[in-house]
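User: I'm putting together notes for a lab meeting next week and I want to include a structural view of one of the chains we've been expressing. I don't have a solved structure, so I'd like a prediction I can at least talk through. The sequence is below, exactly as it appears in our construct file.
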Amino acid sequence: MKKFICLFILMLFVASYNISAQNISFTYDNDGNMESRYTVALKSSTHQAEEEAPSDVTSVELDKQKITVYPNPTHGKICVEIAPLNHEEKNIIHIFNSSGHLLKTKKITSERTYLEIHGAQGAYLLNIHLGANISKWKIIKK
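Assistant: Thanks for the context. Below is the predicted structure for the 142-residue chain, given as structure tokens.
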């Protein structure tokens, strides 16, 4: 009976982990109104941020620009890919902690931008501003 209970608890844990491995991402217009909602699968990755994007990463399209952020969850280093990047627009990344405090601002100058998240383990918010459009991502640091 004890083996059955242990097996049942283990199965519940695995099932709850798989269900929680999703993130909801939203896009907003200039007035702050939500335009769209995306479900992004959070998958752990053994890839380093300097390597090519894994083929199973979910990307978001924002105003004909494909945005990919990986790895998520991360150990601190992430890569943001934007293709094609419009260099004539003001392109900026903001990283906030879970309390809403701005930790880092970085100007996007190329299609691939690397960021280091310094701080404790937990959830961080990544806002990607491409001209007047904003894509918001939840990043998990292990």
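A couple of points you could mention at the meeting. Residues 7 and 63 are 48 Å apart (CA to CA). The chain is about 15% helix and 45% strand.

User: Perfect, that's what I needed.
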